[in-house]
Amino acid sequence: MNRVLPPALTLALMAATAVAGMTPPTGMPDHDMGGMHDMKGYQVYSKAAFDAARTTQRVLFFHATWCPNCKRADADITKNLAKLPAGIVVFKTDYDRETALKKQYGIAYQHTFVLVDAQGKALKKWAGGGLKEIMAAAAAAKKM
């Protein structure tokens, strides 16, 4: 049964999940990332979620809501999410807000992807593409 939550309750739940480092539960709006919900393998970046996924292959997708290439990549990833192999997590990372992360990984522009190892070291960084490029980078890293 779907229920509409009062705006104050919705905001309180979103704030609580943000403080806990979680993504909003499915069905709740994510106002900062274009309505994206927590999806298996593809989720909004938070340090806690990123750290918790340390045992997987992690990809940071530096996304901007105003970027047409980012929108196409987001649509491609979302549409083809079932093709994403288990063990890969893509983090939709807010290009405009995650300034420390951009500095850490040397990100100069949006629509940049970074494959990161368990220690947080960048294994590969590339601009452009979508799910196909993410899977190719993850497969190449496994062969290293």
From TrEMBL:
InterPro entries, per database record: Thioredoxin-like_sf, Thioredoxin_domain
Xref: CDD domains: TRX_family
Name assigned to this protein: Thioredoxin family protein
Keywords from the named record: Signal
Signal peptide residues on this chain, from the entry's feature table: 1-20
Pfam families reported in the protein's UniProt record: Thioredoxin
Organism: Deinococcus rufus
Limits of the Thioredoxin domain: 22-143
UniProt xrefs under PROSITE patterns: THIOREDOXIN_2
